[in-house]
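Moderator note: this is an archived Q&A kept for reference. The question asked for a predicted structure of one protein chain; the sequence and the answer are reproduced below.
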Amino acid sequence: MSFSTDVKNELARITDGQNCCNLSELAALMRMGGTMLIGGNNNLGISFTTENAAVARKALMLIKRLFELKTEVVVTRGRRLKKANSYLIRVVPSLATAGLFTTLGIMPGVAASSQYTGLLRRACCRRAYLRGAFLGGGSVNKPEGEYHLELVTGNQEFAKILIRLLKSFKLPVKITDRKQEYVVYLKDGEAITSFLRIIGATNALFTFENVRVVKDMRNQVNRLVNCETANLQKTVNAAVRQVERIKHIAGTIGLSGLPETLREAAEIRLAYPEATLNELVFLMDGKVGKSGINHRLRKLEQIAQNLEDSRHE
């Protein structure tokens, strides 16, 4: 079972909303997954299809709770191996369905943006509307992978409504198109947890947050380890280079010809080739600081480089 299915199953169990919220949720569900039917005498009906049994039950419950309309339910078994069942909820075309279309703001031939003013007036209804949109056409990646939540619709105007809704909750929403569909999506982990909180997916929110915290902590540890490894490699490379330069000095002019401070630094580096600068400070009883030792070792490297250059002249 996917994480998206877990989220939808949890949302489908939310049944205690006010009528205004139930209407908003049903409106978004029908807008995302509904298809208009035309029956005899040009009466209108609607069908809603989903592969999630819990979502199908939720849609049927909302229709029966809000409207006294004749409905039919058809379950189609998947023909291929492991293919999910398909659940079709059909509101039979009749004169009475006109009220459903008007109330849900999905009248044919009327711009979507002009039909939703009443449905989205209250914050609770806007939350319910987004819940219905996710139930009807949403998905979210499991938190262990890449952060990605999307709402997919074939209607560009409806996609713009979803964008405005998400922005009203200060979410960094984006949109793209994919095969004649419009994908409204979130890529930020914090934004996805906020969205789950908004639509009421509390259990999914806790699951997502727990995994996200562990994942972020693991990434932080990996960054620290990589940084420490890089610093260690840098220290080792510098120490190897310093030892080689000091040996070059010893083989040409000898260490005895160096000033006492440089000779002392050269001898202790040769004696402890793997020591860090801090360790060298300790070995020298703190007589000179880290910057002082570093300055002396660089001076030794410069002397070795000058000897090398004069040899090639």
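Archived answer notes: The chain has a mean pLDDT of 85.
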